[in-house]
Design a protein that fits this description.
Elements: H1 15-32, E1 36-37, E2 43-45, H2 46-52, H3 58-63, E3 66-69, H4 75-86, H5 99-106, E4 110-115, H6 122-142, E5 147-154, E6 165-167, E7 170-176, E8 184-188, H7 193-202, E9 212-221, E10 233-242, H8 252-269, E11 274-280, H9 284-298, H10 307-315, H11 329-333, H12 344-360, E12 365-366, E13 378-386, E14 394-400, H13 404-407, E15 415-421, H14 422-431, E16 440-446, H15 452-464, E17 469-471, H16 478-487, E18 490-496, H17 498-503, E19 505-510, E20 516-520, H18 521-530
Parallel strand pairs: 1-9, 4-5, 5-7, 11-12, 16-17, 16-18
Antiparallel strand pairs: 2-8, 3-8, 6-7, 9-10, 10-15, 11-13, 13-14, 14-15, 18-19, 19-20
Helix pairs in contact: 1-8, 8-12
Bound molecules: adenosine-5'-triphosphate and magnesium ion.
């Protein structure tokens, strides 16, 4: 049996009802805060993430799904190309010929051609040489006085194709393929901010002169060790505010607005037990100074710390703060705090933002150890955590990225954004007992032969009038219909028998209470919709 790949999962009803309710609610919240949807591709140039997320981050060093993309050639296609170049007149006969026959006929001198499928990267070269050698051995048994050739596809123009060269008794020849594409490294998006900023730059959104308030909902991909709340395909609901500084994109009011929106959004989807953790990581100069301070503070103690910390102390001392090893905690507690290394503008930015949060009554705690895993963050960083999520406690994370656009060769465009882990949001909601209420109003059950058409007609009327309805079948006995209605989570069952159709009054039973009443056809939709 073929199963879903480890780390991916199927989302099924009734869970998907909750997913949909959450997504509908967040779209509604986004609309009220004047955010508009952006949809970017699920895969991008690998360079976007290498540069946008940062070469040194966990995401880029070990979590990305990356592949080399180029058109793959079949041997037949390569044979056609080769023949077309070397002997156009033979081209017409190609299809009927076997491989070796063909080569011999086309060019008396050239007797063995190794056709490579796909992209000539190192390993396929090696494979090709091996295959060529065995082909050559077979060929030379039959035709001892002939040459062996390796033909490789090339994207170069004919004039710059290398002359055939010989190596280990094999002649290498490049042929130009009409549609040959240079292989290209592509990556499934591990996050969406880099893609949004790429789109912002590519479409010149800065020229609109206003703040761009963009949101997205969609899958992201990271090759992590799967566990509860951590998947290889997971979903994020995210938003970004980005724009030219003249539009106020670096103002702390945006940070405060975004955090206030998040608090409102979580409350509206029904999540209660969240904590907002807040920090400022300053600008890149601040961080350089802080890294220096961390290095010095770590030097005398790092030898007693865990292996990860010893490595991080060298490569990226900031990451030491993420360490979870209990024995290291007393050391980490005593390390310098980033707050002490912020320059004046960054300190003021943070202060002003906090004052606004206080003014609107959004509660938060300061966590000076929270430095976040992406290189592009500047100034405000935050996470919303939830107590019921175990080790994967972050429901969402985000922060400012004032230099990201420029680092992707774009205009100066400060921005701030967040990404909610939708999988974890759903888990947290479920842990709090939130479910999507079954919202099937009525189960319409035809009773007796020939009643299906009447039931279908009544269902059509009711559905058009806004009632959610499901249908039974005339072959069901009444008992079975009641069971089906209950399983479907319907509030009412409506019986459609011959008498009902004739009289225009239907027996309607509320499943929970068992009360039954007769309702006239023209009152039925209203009755089913409103008597909750
Ligand atoms: P974590 O510390 O949990 O690894 P992160 O810092 O890598 O999170 P971000 O890149 O900031 O996460 O992504 C924002 C949110 O996306 C996280 O807070 C989390 O809710 C969610 N998320 C990240 N990685 C995964 C994953 N592999 N599976 C499910 N949700 C994830
Ligand atoms: Mg992570």
């Amino acid at each position: 049996m073929i199963k879903a790949i480890r780390g991916t999962r199927d989302l099924l009803p009734p869970d998907t009802d909750l997913w949909n309710r959450v997504e509908a609610k967040v779209r509604d919240v986004f609309a009220r805060y004047n955010f508009h949807e952006i949809r970017t591709p699920i895969f991008e140039d690998t360079q976007l993430f290498a540069r946008g997320v940062g070469e040194e981050t966990d995401i880029v060093t070990k979590e990305m799904f990356t592949w080399m993309d180029a058109r793959r050639y079949s041997e037949k296609e390569l044979i056609f190309e080769w023949i077309a170049i070397h002997s156009p007149s033979a081209f017409a006969q190609v299809e009927k010929k076997l491989f070796f026959d063909l080569v011999a006929e086309v060019d008396g001198r050239t007797n063995v051609v190794e056709f490579m499928s796909g992209v000539p990267n190192d390993s396929s070269w090696r494979g090709a040489v091996g295959r060529l050698r065995s082909a050559k051995a077979i060929w030379q048994q039959a035709e001892p006085n002939t040459e062996a050739r390796l033909v490789v596809p090339s994207s170069k123009r004919s004039s710059t194709l290398r002359k055939p060269t010989e190596h280990l008794g094999i002649i290498y020849e490049e042929i130009e393929l009409k549609d040959y594409e240079e292989p290209h490294s592509l990556t499934l998006r591990p996050e969406n901010t880099a893609g949004v900023v790429r789109a912002y730059i590519e479409h010149g959104l800065d020229k609109r002169g206003t703040l761009q308030k963009l949101y997205y909902i969609g899958p992201q991909f990271r090759r992590e060790r799967p566990q509860k709340g951590r998947y290889r395909q997971f979903y994020q609901i995210g938003a970004e505010i980005i724009g030219p500084p003249s539009a106020g994109s670096d103002s702390p009011i945006l940070d405060a607005e975004l955090l206030e929106m998040l608090a409102a959004l979580l409350n509206e989807v029904g999540l209660r037990g969240w904590t907002l953790q807040l920090n400022s990581v300053g600008c890149s100069d601040d961080r350089a100074r802080y890294n220096q301070a961390l290095r010095s503070a770590l030097e005398p103690v790092v030898a007693t710390m865990c292996a990860d910390c010893q490595r991080r102390a060298e490569t990226n001392p900031l990451r030491v703060l993420d360490c979870k090893v209990p024995e290291d905690q007393p050391i980490i507690e005593k390390l310098p705090k980033i707050g002490e290394y912020l320059d004046e503008p960054c300190r003021v930015h943070f202060q002003v933002m906090r004052a606004m949060l206080d003014a609107v009554g959004v509660p938060y705690i300061i966590n000076e150890r929270m430095v976040r895993g992406l290189d592009y963050y500047t100034r405000t960083t935050f996470e919303f955590t939830h107590g019921d999520l175990g080790a994967q406690s972050a429901v969402l994370g985000g922060g400012r990225y004032d230099g990201l656009s420029e680092s992707l060769d774009g205009p100066k465009a400060p921005g701030i954004g967040f990404a909610i882990g939708e999988d974890r949001l759903i888990l947290a909601l479920q842990a709090e007992g939130v479910t999507a209420d079954a919202d099937l109003d009525a189960y319409i059950t035809p009773l007796g032969a020939g009643m299906n058409a009447h039931a279908l007609k009544l269902a059509r009327e009711l559905r058009r009038a806004g009632v959610s309805a499901d249908l039974g079948d005339e072959t069901f006995r009444l008992k079975k219909s009641f069971e089906a209605a209950e399983k479907a989570g319907a509030r009412f069952i409506v019986i459609v028998g011959e008498n009902e159709v004739k009289s225009g009054e239907f027996a309607v039973k509320e499943l929970a209470s068992g009360t039954q009443e007769n309702v006239a056809r023209d009152r039925l939709a209203e009755f089913l919709r409103h008597s909750q």
